[in-house]
Each structure stands twice: as C-alpha cells, then as structure tokens.
C-alpha cells in the first residue's frame, strides 16, 4: 500500500545513527543522502529522514518495519537497546493481533514508536 514514508527529526545525525543501527538487522541500510535528507531501504529507499522545517512540536508516529524472521526482531531490539533507546515492549508474540505476530517496540531519538515485526510462525 505504501510506496515510501518520511519523518521529520530534530537532530538528523542522532536519528541517522539510531536508524543505521536498528535497521541493519532488518536488511535495510542508508541508500541515499541529499544534504540532511536520508533514504533507507533494501533495494530502494522507502523510509526517509529529514530535518524539522515547521514550527511547533512533532507528534509521535508509529513505524513498523518488516523483519524476515524472529531472530531479526530480537537483533533489532538488541541494537536499539545498545544504542540507548527506550524499550516500549521487548520481543514477544502479540496474540491479540494474530497468533504469529512477533514484535518489539522502542522509541527513536524523537520519541517515535518504532517496531520490528515478523508475521511468520516460529
């Protein structure tokens, strides 16, 4: 459904360091950079960071990245913890979503709720 998603961040270098770290276990990396605008993805950039350009406070976004397996969800979580991210929910099955929904949730440097999720059975 989505072609790409972009979020605005207060500190591009801090956010880039966070996403460089937590997206690597999911098979994504920094693919493009135009000044302070950075695109991440596997084959093409589908997640973008850019600096805040409007006045006021940003609102929390929820971003869920697909993980190829449960080990990648755990690696995402471990990378986030190592980078100092606040853990919202450690990796676990979320049966209220569906029987094989396995996800971990953390906060990025701007307070966004960032998730890695695998839908495959263990």
From TrEMBL:
Residue ranges of domain VOC in the record: 1-119
PROSITE patterns: VOC (PS51819)
A Pfam family recorded for this sequence: Glyoxalase
A GO MF term: lyase activity
Key words of the record: Dioxygenase, Lyase, Oxidoreductase
Domain of life: Bacteria
Designated name of the protein: Catechol 2,3-dioxygenase-like lactoylglutathione lyase family enzyme
Organism listed in the record: Micromonospora olivasterospora
Taxonomic classification: Bacteria, Bacillati, Actinomycetota, Actinomycetes, Micromonosporales
